Amino acid sequence: MADTSSPTEPDINELQKEIIQSIEYFAQINRIRVEDNNFIQEKINQISEQRVIFLNFVEESISQSLKMCYHAKNLIVFAEWCENDGTNKEDLLEYLRSLLGDSKLHKSEATLLKKQIENIKNSLGGIAREISEYNDKITKERKDLSDGINKANKLTDDAKSIAKRVTGIGLIAAVLAAPFTGGVSLIVSVTFAVENLTIM
Predict the structure, then answer these.
(1) Residue 189's domain spans which residues?
(2) What long-range pairs does 68-71 form, CB within 8 A, spacing at least 24?
(3) What is the DSSP string of 148-166?
(4) Which residue spans traverse the membrane (predicted)?
(5) How many domains does the structure of the chain reveal?
(6) Half-sphere exposure of 160 (CA within 13 A, CB side)
(7) Global pTM?
(8) Residue 194 three-state SS
(9) Domain assignment of residue 7, yes or no
(10) Is residue 73 domain-resident?
(11) Per-residue pLDDT of the chain (200 residues; tens, 9 = 90+)
């Protein structure tokens, strides 16, 4: 038997697998609880709302598929009826009008389902984009905080280095002034230097 599937039409088995996988992903996300981050919990709740909409879509899609199967059977009956030479043309025309009305209704319902799944996709894409932007913001803030800490540490290290130099200069000045102050300046400078070095 030749493959009659069109390359533009999705493989039903593949579509079924994707739907099941989507339901599993929604179920996994639905179990996530975040206690200390309102933004993320809000996004999880929004995804859960999309899960409910998606499950309704799946139910409506299954119902639509069953209607289409029934409609296809009616088309087969009509085609077989057309092959019969004894069929009244008025009866055929009446049956064809009925099939045309059903076809238009099914097309309208399929279009609504397509819009519904596009809305779900767009909503989930928007949520994912907001989470990504939030992640980028948090990452930048964390980097900025880390940079700030590094700058503060560098300033502290620079201040310690300058304090050590000043203390060293003070000791040198005290040693030079010792003959003139009778050694008092040396004792004061050494005491000051020891206190500052222990603080650092």
Answers:
(1) 154-199
(2) 68/106, 71/99, 71/102, 71/103, 71/106
(3) HHHHHHHHHHHHHHHHHHH
(4) 169-194
(5) 2
(6) 10
(7) 0.59
(8) helix
(9) no
(10) yes
(11) 444 545 555 566 777 777 778 877 777 777 777 777 788 888 888 888 888 898 888 888 888 888 888 888 888 888 888 877 777 888 888 888 888 888 898 888 888 888 888 888 888 888 888 888 888 888 888 888 787 787 777 767 666 666 555 555 555 554 454 455 454 444 545 555 555 555 44
∠ CA(17), CA(22), CA(27), 5° rounding? 125
**Same domain, yes or no, for 99 and 177?**
no
Pair (60, 129) in one structural domain: yes
**Crossing angle of helices 38-83 and 89-181, rounded to 10°:** 160
127 close to 47: Cβ distance less than 8 angstroms = yes
50 close to 106: Cβ distance less than 8 angstroms: no
Which residues fall within 8 angstroms of residue 34, CB to CB, at 6 or more apart? 40, 41, 44
Biggest CA-to-CA distance, the chain: 139
